[in-house]
Write a structure and sequence with these properties.
Blueprint lengths: L1 H53 L16 H70 L13 H48 L4 H27 L11 H15 L4 E6 L8 H22 L3 E8 L3 E8 L8 H4 L5 H11 L3 E6 L5 E8 L3
Length: 373
């Protein structure tokens, strides 16, 4: 288990580096906003002093020899100053709002970094404990009787799977929120700017305001598309009212449209036993994991899918003519990879997974799980 914990430690370290860099980026933005606000404040103070000089409420005649000011010129200059000051006030409000948002993001990142730091320490402790236990075992092997018929520690197995499942869930949430934050930030800022402009033009130029509102609506559509696109990467659309066969056929058709360069052969046998809602969702999720893995890594030109049922089990068999899978994929692939996710899903479903290379090329995958009675 020490090697597996080291893999987790490396992955945790990668996440730490990523979020530390993200934290530094947002900290830099906050510093830039604070400097910008300081410059705006100085400029506003200067303009206010200048405006008072041009204000007609002030008596400019310090003596009988002082010239009388041109009231029209003074009014025009004061109006220019007020316009510039209003622009600066709008800019200051926008920067203050962005500063509040960046501060909120920074606080959220600091919370994540604290959790990752705590996890890093716990992982270190776990690695040290296992290394100490291994040294102790090696030192006492000469005096210890080994029983080959000992049962595996079920509690330890459940504990390890539970940790892995929680780590994967945490990773997915963090990854999704980070991607959405990065991709939505520009769109949200642009949308806010458009609405602010529309508000300013509402009375003086309604046509321009309407155009800006239309652009803002297009921005909301893009935001929706971004969110929907990211969620589709995590959830395969299903129709719970339809059976597993119909859902499989719909999914395969979508893959054929998306990957016309790959021939997909299907053999969906008689499936008399209905899957529960949870099993239906997990079946589609598993199939998506393995199909995406094929399209992303296998470089295959043909994929075969066979689905069948027995009186007790639901069985899926996949094969491709790609470059095969590395023999050490379990230890060398990241802990958050698709295959490791599939293993945990099948563990929760009480199923099994077999993966092996085929001759002369390609990979065979077979997984099954008991059908809920």
């Amino acid at each position: 288990m020490t090697d597996e914990w080291k893999i987790i430690a490396d992955s945790n370290e990668e996440m730490l580096r990523y979020f530390k860099q993200l934290h530094a980026d947002h900290l830099e933005k906050i510093q830039a906003l604070k400097e910008g606000l300081f410059e705006v404040k100085i400029r506003l103070d200067e303009l206010e002093k200048t405006r008072k000089v041009y204000s007609l409420n002030i008596d400019y005649r310090k003596s009988v020899f002082s010239p009388l000011p041109d009231e029209n010129a003074v009014n025009e200059k004061e109006a220019e100053l007020r316009t510039e000051m209003q622009d600066l006030l709008d800019r200051r409000e926008d920067m203050e709002n962005r500063l509040a948002e960046e501060s909120y993001i920074l606080k959220s990142l600091e919370t994540r970094l604290k959790k990752l730091d705590s996890a890093k320490q716990e992982i270190r402790n776990k690695i040290q404990e296992e290394e100490d236990a291994l040294e102790e075992k090696e030192a006492s092997d000469a005096f210890e009787f080994i029983r080959e018929d000992d049962e595996p520690d079920l509690e330890e197995i459940l504990r390890e799977h539970g940790k892995q499942i929680l780590l994967l869930h945490s990773f997915d949430q963090t990854y999704l929120s980070t991607i959405l934050d990065k991709r939505l930030r520009t769109e949200v800022d642009t949308l806010s700017y458009r609405m602010k402009q529309a508000e300013d033009f509402m009375r003086v130029d309604p046509v321009r305001a309407a155009m800006l509102i239309k652009e803002a609506r297009q921005g909301t559509d893009r935001i929706y598309q971004i969110i929907e696109g990211q969620l589709k990467k995590y959830m395969t659309p299903i129709q719970e009212s339809a059976g597993i066969a119909d859902n499989l056929e719909d999914y395969i058709l979508s893959l054929k449209d998306k990957h016309p360069e790959v021939v997909i052969d299907t053999e969906i046998g008689d499936l008399p036993f209905a899957l529960s809602s949870v099993q239906l969702r997990m079946t589609m999720r598993l199939l998506r994991i393995f199909m995406e893995n094929i399209f992303r890594h296998a470089e295959a030109s043909r994929v075969s899918l066979k689905v069948s049922e027995t009186n007790e089990d639901f069985i899926v068999e996949l094969s491709d003519n790609g470059k095969g899978i590395p023999l050490d994929y379990k230890t060398d692939s990241p802990w958050y990879s698709g295959i490791h996710r599939a293993e945990e899903v099948l563990f929760l479903m009480g199923g099994s997974l077999e993966i092996h290379n085929s001759y002369p090329q390609g990979t065979n995958v077979r997984y099954s799980f008991p059908i809920d009675g």
